[in-house]
Structure formats: C-alpha cells, structure tokens
Amino acid sequence: MQRIDFIAMGCDTSIFLDSDAPEAITALQQTQAWFEEWEQVLSRFRPTSELAALNRFAGYWFNTSETLWDVLQAALDSAARTAGRVTPTVLPQLLAAGYDRPFEAFKTEGAGQNTAAPNAVPAADWRAIELNTGQRAVRLPRGTALDFGGIAKGWAAEKTAQRLVHLGGVLVDAGGDMAARGRRIDDGAWPIGISDPRTGDADENALLDIILIHDCGVATSGRDYRRWQHHGRAQHHIIDPHTGQPADTDVLSATVIAADAAAAETAAKQVLLLGSDAGLCWIDAQPGAAALLVTNDGAIRTSAAFDRYTERIEAPAIDAA
C-alpha cells in the first residue's frame, strides 16, 4: 500500500494506492502537481487563477480551459439537481459573511474586516449563466461571481482516482471529499471513519461509525469546523442562496455516500440546507445514496440505505471528516 500526504485546495489531502509497482509509486508522486495545476485554475483566493479572471469578466464572454469548463458543468449540474440550493453563485454572499480569505488565515487574521455589515441579498440565479458549448465559453451576468468550493475538491478527488485506478485500488481524500475506485488487493472495501462533530477539539479521533466503500464517493458537510464571528454574528460557510445568509438548519453535519465524490459533496450540502427531515427524504429518493446526520441536539439520524455500508471491522479506518 502506497500513501502520499500534502496540503491542497486549503485542506489536508491523502491518497492511498494499493500497489507496490514502480510505476504506481511514480504516478503517486505526481499527484500533488495535479492538484496545484487545478488549484491555479479553480481557486477564488488566487487573484491569478482562471476562476478569478472569469469573475472579473462578468458581463462578457470568456473562453475557458477544459478544467474550468468541466467543473463549471459539474457545479451547474449540482444546482439543477438541488433546485438551486447548491449553487456556485454564492461568492458575494460568502464575502459578505467575512469569508474573504483562505480559512487557515482566520486563525491569525480573523474573518474579513468589512467596516459595515451589508444587507444580505439572495444569490444570483444560476440559470442566467450563458454557455456556448462549441466555443467552451461562458458569460456571467453582471454582478455574478462564482465559488466552486467543495465541488472543485470532489471533482479533483474523482479525477485523481480515475487517473490512478488502472494501477490498483485507490482512495483519494481531499479534505473529507473522498473518491474510491477499484478494490484493494485483498478484495476488501475501504474502511472510512465518520468523525463525531459533537466532540469538537476535545477528541478529534472520536468516530460515530465506520463505513465500507468501493467505487463510490463520500463527503461530509458541516457547520462544526468552518465557522467564525463577523460583525458580532456567528457565521459558517454553507450559504442558503434564497436568503443570502449562512443556512439556518437543524443539521450540524451530514455525511453522504453517492456515486462519486462530487455527487456526494452536492448531496451533503443539500441535506444540510434542507434540514434533517426533508434532507433524509431527499436522500432516500436518490438511487444508491445514503447518509448519516448529526443534528443540533446531538441526535444521530441515518437514511434507509445507510446500514448497507456499515460493518464492524478491526482494520483502522480512514477519517472521513
């Protein structure tokens, strides 16, 4: 079993490849460069990124790279599948909430230092984004700006897994957005531990459950980590596009298993935005999807299909959040 760890897209990234072949070791060593290349295209925090350029050119046609085009399609597909709740058009609302720098900078610099708290406004309608498929071009309406957030991480995790799976079973963990492709040499599934958000920093190793996965994606979305104070108000990074404010929900965290990492990321945010009752109903209607939720009162709730992925095992689990 080969493993590489590095920081990319603002989070800890780990990649496991179940092969000892020399070509597998060589390929694994290239993965950090792949993430760096993608981050230079997709990061809203880098003023030189392609996404930053697209946002600056709102109102004009913009020819995109294949990477930006692919992630934009994934983001718009997420918006369509969630009736616009998970939308890439929330960047102005994230900035208004104080999320104007990489989250690790909050520890030393605090949240954004806007002098006045702006009135919250709904996110721009994703359906107004114009596309020219033949030219791979996009025109954002004036005043619209995009943040790909977790969709970019899920896409990157899945892309990496697809590039490596011909060498052996692979698991990519991009800050809790996981893509598993192929099986391990012993024909076993990958054991994934679901962290307990109720413990905070008191016990980072506390697990709610262990799931066993292969050929699917896992993602966790929660309000327990990326949170801060801005203008005297508690904030978090899951924006309700209808209000323009951090979501008011009874879900503290949601872990979802879905067909791929990007789909799992979308579904986890959808469940959090809908709330536990409606969120679990939505998950139960998605073929092959399953979820575990932790609510504000500390209760644990699971979807109808979740038990299919659980099994008591002795092997150490890989943390999913």
Task: Summarize the structure in words.
The protein is an alpha+beta fold. The chain is 29% helix and 26% strand. It has one domain: Roll (T-fold). The chain has helices at residues 22-29, 31-42, 50-56, 66-81, 91-96, 106-109, 149-164, 261-274, 276-284, and strands at residues 2-8, 11-17, 61-63, 130-132, 137-139, 170-174, 177-181, 190-195, 207-213, 216-222, 227-230, 233-236, 239-240, 245-246, 251-258, 290-295, 300-302, 318-319. The radius of gyration is 19 Å and the shape is globular. The protein starts with a strand and ends with a strand.
What would a concise description of this structure say?
This protein has 321 residues and is of the alpha+beta class. It has nine helices and 18 strands.
Instruction: Identify the overall geometry.
Output: globular
Global structural class: alpha+beta
> The biggest beta sheet, please?
8 strands, antiparallel
Strand content: 25-35%
Q: How many DSSP H or I helices?
A: 9
Q: Estimate the mean pLDDT confidence.
A: 89
CATH architecture type = Roll
CATH class: Alpha Beta
Give a count of the beta strands, DSSP E runs of length 2 or more: 18
Q: Which consecutive residue ranges, at least 5 long each, have pLDDT under 50?
A: none
The name CATH uses for the topology is T-fold
Give the CATH H-level superfamily. Answer: ApbE-like domains
Strand order within the widest beta sheet: 1-2-6-7-10-15-16-17
Q: Taking Cα atoms only, what radius of gyration do you get, to the nearest Å?
A: 19 Å
